[in-house]
Amino acid sequence: AETVRSSAESLQSLLNDILDFSKIEAGKLDLEIIDFDLQALLDDFAGTIAFSGHDKGLELFFWLEPGVPTKLKGDPSRLRQILTNLVGNAIKFTHVGEVAVCVSLEKETEQEALLRFVVRDTGIGVAKDKVGLLFDKFTQADASTTRKYGGVGLGLAITKQLAELMGGQVGIESEEGVGSEFWFTTRLGKQVQGAQ
Ligand code: ADP
User: Fold this and answer.
1) CA of 185 to the centre of ligand 1 (A)
2) Ligand 1 atom showing the smallest separation from residue 135 Cα
3) Choosing a second label site near 33 at 20 to 30 A (CA), which of 78, 111, 148, 182?
4) What is the pLDDT of residue 195?
5) CB 136 within 8 A of CB 99
């Protein structure tokens, strides 16, 4: 039963990735703009992802820097999808140590905030010649990745497209055998003053 369940989950996540990617490529992915609380989103996300980190004996940290506005407007589901991709990868490719998520404020105006999310791990890292390619669709670090870790190489391509749709960028710094740092920025609206 466990095997059937995990196969079904892999298939579902693959189908969702392919559908999302096709939607983005067709220019049909519309972002929602609704009020949400970043602190609540991170708390809830940390609660759900904690299980897979805990199963591997990894420490998970979430750090929201003081001064980051939390009463925001944007698409919380897509923001969560980016975090799920990056933190899910960080846990998948880390065998010992920790995964840390840090959110900081890059810039703000009366109406908008540009936030930076960094997901750092102490995992297997990425070889220098592969770092620049990982955000391309269907790209993995090497031919053994699918066999050892699963996946098809769509998660980061979707992450990049979503971050760009949300007015941001993505990037990576990594050292093989030491760990990786994936970051993205996103432009979010601020709720009217007083909501805080
Ligand atoms: P998938 O996880 O389905 O393979 P992704 O697009 O999410 O696809 O990732 C592409 C590749 O980037 C992975 O297969 C892996 O080789 C590499 N990668 C992603 N995140 C990490 C990480 N945190 N540490 C090491 N390698 C990573």
Assistant:
1) 19
2) 6
3) 182
4) 54
5) no
C-alpha closest to that of 45 among 57, 37, 34 = 37
| Pair type for strands 98-108 and 112-121 | antiparallel
Residues 6+ apart with CB under 8 A from 56: 91, 94, 95
State in Å: Cα 194 to ligand 1 middle. 41
Any ligand 1 atom below 6 A from CB of 140: yes
CB of 86 sitting under 6 A from ligand 1 = no
Query: Which candidate, 38, 155, 181, places its Cα nearest to that of 103?
Result: 38
Residues 46-73 have pLDDT tens digits of 999 998 999 999 999 999 999 999 999 9
- For range 18-41, the mean pLDDT: 91
Backbone angles phi, psi at 24, to 5 degrees: -65, -45
Q: Report the distance separating Cα 90 and Cα 70, nearest Å.
A: 24
Ligand 1: residue whose CA is nearest its atom 3: 151
